[in-house]
């Protein structure tokens, strides 16, 4: 597994540099706007959400090189087998997402330490962004494994489109009085007072982790079956 993780690091090194630069830019932006007291929690969450979205749409660099026939045959025939190959990909992406989560938490902590304003802490919402990122990966990675990177990324775009459509439908027909009568964070706090909503959001990180694990197991099975779908 260590060898596979090192290979993943080499394959993904350019993307890691881009993610690192973007994280530095976003953390610096949050830090400066927080100190200047011109930032907002919703703006911070939007920036953090962009980080997880960037990770999700840079997965092709981790999978595309292994879609060639000789590379795939070698990985399947290796002692770790197809299962080890797939697990290393899932573990690597999980570590990347955790790294971004930790960086965002540290940014919030530094802003809070410098300003003393607890409203700068995104806390629970940041964990929910992380969970949503895992769910999006869990839905798209089996498509990448089976059909290849192009179809997998299309599946992720479709899933994101469905989520945006659901949000739009709720905005049109649901109860949004919370958000119309209060600022964003106050509205979220009131929304969290609903026991059903609180239960659903509380279960979301566990659901994301479980779905990610099940997705990994499914991808282990699909790797061999999807061989003919690669160029």
Give the overall average pLDDT: 76
Structure annotation, total helices:
11
Structural class, by secondary structure, is mainly alpha
Percent of residues in helical segments? over 70%
Spatial extent as radius of gyration = 20 Å
Proportion of beta-strand residues: under 5%
Name the poorly predicted regions.
none
For the termini, the CA-CA separation is: 27 Å
H-E string: HHHHHHHHHHH
What summary fits the major beta sheet? none
Give the total of beta strands: 0
Shape: globular
Task: Summarize the structure in words.
This protein is mainly alpha-helical and 231 residues long. The protein is built from eleven helices and no strands. The chain is globular and about 55 Å long. The two termini are 27 Å apart.
Notable traits:
single chain, 231 residues, mainly alpha, 11 helices, globular
In short:
With 231 residues, the chain is mainly α. It contains eleven helices and no strands.
Mind sketching the topology for me?
Elements: H1 2-11, H2 13-35, H3 41-56, H4 60-63, H5 69-77, H6 81-115, H7 123-147, H8 149-173, H9 177-181, H10 184-192, H11 195-225
Helix pairs in contact: 1-6, 2-3, 2-6, 3-6, 3-7, 6-7, 6-11, 7-8, 7-11
